[in-house]
Specification:
Elements: E1 7-11, H1 16-27, E2 31-36, H2 39-52, E3 57-60, H3 66-80, E4 85-88, H4 105-134, E5 137-141, H5 156-177, E6 182-188, H6 195-198, H7 206-210, H8 221-232, E7 243-246
Parallel strand pairs: 1-2, 1-4, 2-3, 4-5, 5-6, 6-7
């Protein structure tokens, strides 16, 4: 799956799935545009990309900021003159429930949707005209939580954001198909990333989470990155509006203790 001279934007590229995806695209010859907020983490991923391929263009940006989103596209076009692939990977979870004492579910909802959904809509809108020119494609990183009743307390906002992303993926796929642009999604289950730490879930470990699912394991970020590359490649030229699940059986059974 060669991506020689293809220009690929990866949001949330400083760690986890985004970092693994950036490194793998670089290894396959792509000109990677890494977007993230954490400069020190981005620097470590840059080194990995450069070892395996071209040094990436690094854009420190917050996808929830409209000006930053526009700057991502402008800097990419100024540097490379085109865009072939957009990977909407940046995501976050802010936990609060309807009845949680001291919680603010509206604040949690607004912050989560701003990154997980609104930013995707905005970036897709700005990138789409460039993808039409290159007959490129989009891969959105969703989650199995958008397909099930929330299994953990105070997780409603994150689940809703991913359910919305699934619908947006299908709607965008239908609209852009006439222009030769494909749009797909990948829905991981538990993956060993820094998500738990970023969400403030200090009492939860990936080792524990892995015991809740049928295959008794959590995925590694590289497993998801391989699926993303497949969907972005010509090998998947007949696939659009699809949602690829890689969850170690989580949708079959997810026994989280309450």
């Amino acid at each position: 799956m060669s991506f020689n001279n293809k220009v690929v934007i990866v949001t949330g590229a400083s760690s986890g799935i985004g970092a693994a995806t950036a490194v793998l695209f670089a290894k396959e010859g792509a000109r990677v545009v890494m977007v993230g907020r954490n400069e020190s983490k981005l620097s470590k991923v840059v080194e990995q990309c450069a070892r395996g391929g071209h040094a990436p263009l690094v854009i420190r940006a917050d996808v929830a900021n409209d000006d930053d989103v526009k700057r991502i596209v402008d800097e990419t076009i100024n540097k490379f003159g085109k865009i072939d692939v957009l990977v909407n990977n940046a995501g976050m979870g802010v936990y609060s429930g309807i009845m949680k004492k001291g919680g603010n579910i509206l604040k949690a909802y607004d912050e989560t949707m701003a990154v997980n959904m609104r930013a995707v809509v905005h970036l897709t809108t700005l990138v789409a005209p460039h993808l039409v020119k290159t007959k490129g494609n989009i891969v959105n990183i969703s989650s199995i939580v958008g397909k099930m009743t929330p299994k953990t307390k105070n997780n409603i906002s994150y689940s809703v954001s991913k359910a919305a992303l699934d619908h947006f993926t299908r709607g965008a796929a239908l609209e852009l198909a006439a222009s030769g642009v494909r749009v797909n999604a990948v829905s991981p289950g538990p993956v060993r990333t820094d998500f738990l730490e970023n969400a403030g879930l200090s009492g939860v470990s990936w080792d524990n989470v892995g015991t809740y699912v049928p295959l008794k394991r959590c995925s590694e970020p590289e497993e998801i990155a391989e699926i993303i590359l497949y969907l972005a490649s010509d090998k998947a030229k007949g696939i659009t509006g699809s949602d690829f699940v890689s969850d170690n059986g989580s949708l079959l059974q997810f026994n989280v203790p309450q």
